[in-house]
């Protein structure tokens, strides 16, 4: 199998946001043409960010982001946790944005660059990362609000990736969540956990409540093992992303959900993708880093990452964290990347890809001693 030197990217939120107030085959991304008019409508902007250095920060936020399709947007925060302090329903100054023909997105506030990333071909989703010098390392996903959703949308079997930032550690878990019809109880089957490099397998939890879903796809819930979260459903009801806080401990979190598929394969992950990652490096720097890049998957198990730029707690740089050059998609959509380090070759970040191949979430990694993080992948136009 050919090797491609690369590094995997992972998921958060911009400090500037605080300061300013498929089918088995899928479709190949790349080669499309979009414009600012494609970033239009009401979006749930879900963000996560962290910093180890003084002052230490753990931050998650949901913002109602309304884009006019002409490069202008309004922002209103509906949930925020900052080191355990909760707040909601406050406005932020208007923002502006730019979209290049290839989908490259740039978000500005008060004339300053807040974040960069990429837009999906239909304009329904945007991935962003804050890379500007001095900014908090953060990542975000904006999901356009829809219609016709209900509590029933979240019923069934889901893959999940959950990352939590607390006062000491960063903890990533991956597993499956079964949401039955009430009054039955959701069941969380935990597969792997990674707390600052200490990897554990197995475990699970039975919760007391599921999800309450609005018609536009926004939701709240306390599903098994997650605590209180709120977020948005997208990709036609087959994917969801949420943020939350555990309360007294001040843990900021982000959780991604992808509906279990059937008959999927390596061919589901095919084409060009935007990638953002939020990772806590404990083995070298003991700090958070936000990463923005791209990857190309050939649908046959080979993947190459490129153009990665990073924010090491306010210091931009380009670097290589580790090598990834192949992957595997299971029948149910479980997505596993493989890390190469010298002669070793083993599974690393694991998560899931959506049924149509448009989105992927990765957590982990699942190798003892590895750094911890969350990755979001979005197919390019």
Would you give an account of this structure?
The protein has 381 residues and is mainly beta. Strands 10, 11, 12, 13, 14, 15, 16, 17, 18 and 19 form a ten-stranded antiparallel beta sheet that branches. A nine-stranded antiparallel beta sheet has the order 23-22-21-20-28-27-26-25-24, with no helix packed on it. It has an eight-stranded antiparallel β-barrel with strand order 1-2-3-5-6-7-8-9. The longest helix has 5 residues. The relative contact order is 0.22. The N terminus is likely disordered.
- Look at the structure and give the mean pLDDT: 85
Number of helices: 1
Structural class: mainly beta
Strand content: over 45%
Name the overall outline. globular
- Describe the largest sheet: 10 strands, antiparallel
Q: Helicity range of the residues?
A: under 10%
Compute the number of strand runs.
28
How far apart the termini lie comes to 28 Å
What's the gist of this structure?
It is built from one helix and 28 strands. It has one helix at 15-19, and strands at residues 40-51, 57-68, 72-82, 85-87, 90-99, 104-109, 112-119, 125-130, 138-144, 156-165, 170-179, 187-195, 198-201, 204-206, 211-213, 218-221, 229-234, 239-245, 252-259, 270-281, 287-298, 303-312, 315-317, 323-329, 334-341, 344-353, 359-363, 372-379.
């Amino acid at each position: 199998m050919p090797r491609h030197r690369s590094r995997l990217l992972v998921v958060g939120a911009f400090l500037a946001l605080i300061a300013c107030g498929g089918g088995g085959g899928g479709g190949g991304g790349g080669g499309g043409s979009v414009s600012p008019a494609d970033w239009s409508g009401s979006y749930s902007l879900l963000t996560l960010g962290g910093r180890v250095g003084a002052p230490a920060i753990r931050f998650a936020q949901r913002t109602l982001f309304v884009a006019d399709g002409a490069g202008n947007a309004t922002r209103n925060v509906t949930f925020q946790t900052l080191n355990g302090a909760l707040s909601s329903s406050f406005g932020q100054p208007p923002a502006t944005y730019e979209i290049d023909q290839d989908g490259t997105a740039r978000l500005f506030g008060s004339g300053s660059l807040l974040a960069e990333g990429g837009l999906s071909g239909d304009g329904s989703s945007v991935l962003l990362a804050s890379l500007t010098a001095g900014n908090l390392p953060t990542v975000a996903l904006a999901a356009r609000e829809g219609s016709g959703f209900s509590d029933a949308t979240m019923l069934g079997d889901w893959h999940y990736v959950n990352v939590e930032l607390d006062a000491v550690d960063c903890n990533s878990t991956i597993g499956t969540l079964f949401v039955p019809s009430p009054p039955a109880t959701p069941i969380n089957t935990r597969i792997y956990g990674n707390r600052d490099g200490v990897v554990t397998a197995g475990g699970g939890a039975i919760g007391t409540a599921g999800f309450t879903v609005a018609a536009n796809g926004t939701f709240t819930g306390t599903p098994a093992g997650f605590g209180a979260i709120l977020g948005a459903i997208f990709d036609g009801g087959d994917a969801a992303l949420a943020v939350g806080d555990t309360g007294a401990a001040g843990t900021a979190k982000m959780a991604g959900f992808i509906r279990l598929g059937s008959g999927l394969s390596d061919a589901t992950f095919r084409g060009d993708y935007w990638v953002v990652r939020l990772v806590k490096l404990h083995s070298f720097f003991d700090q958070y880093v936000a990463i923005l890049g791209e990857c190309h998957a050939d649908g046959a198990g080979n993947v190459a990452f490129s153009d990665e730029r990073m924010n090491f707690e306010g210091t931009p740089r380009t670097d290589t964290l580790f090598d990834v050059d192949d992957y595997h998609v299971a029948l149910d959509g479980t997505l596993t990347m493989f890390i190469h380090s010298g002669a070793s070759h083993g599974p690393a970040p694991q998560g899931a890809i959506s049924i149509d191949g448009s989105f992927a979430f990765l957590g982990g990694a699942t190798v003892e001693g590895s750094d911890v993080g969350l990755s979001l992948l979005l197919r390019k136009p």
